[in-house]
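To: structure subgroup
Subject: Chain for Friday's discussion

All,

I'm putting the inputs and outputs inline so they're searchable in the archive.
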Amino acid sequence: MGTVNYRTIELASNYKPKLSEPYMCPEQLAYFYHVLNSQREELISERDDVLNAVRLADKTEAAGVGDDSDNAAYNQDITMDLRMSERNNKLLQKIDAALERISNGTYGFSVVSGEEIGIKRMMARPLATMTVEEQEEYESRKN
């Protein structure tokens, strides 16, 4: 009997990881894999929308459409979209790192101590890389 591949598991639509299950069993990994991939696809779609808006703004400005006030407001919107896109790109990198941890069997375990992060924390923050205590200590040292 081989190991179960979390990528091919069909989960019930209402499945949520339970404390009674073995920690990071294939079903839990499948759940987090799907959650993270869904977030990833949404961010990529948003990034594509921003790129299309920037291209449209360039074409509109080049064509001389709109007055100075319209162009200033539009440019401000584009600047905000680009900032959001930059933030989303950082989030995409974190999602990709989490997916890599799922793939290599380290997802759900602290990068500091190797301890279980805990299913409740992973449900609340699927990108968590440290236990609550380690995160709090890290934050207090940072400030």
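Points worth raising on Friday:
The helical segments are 26-63, 68-104, 119-124, 132-142.
The chain is about 65% helix and 0% strand.

D.
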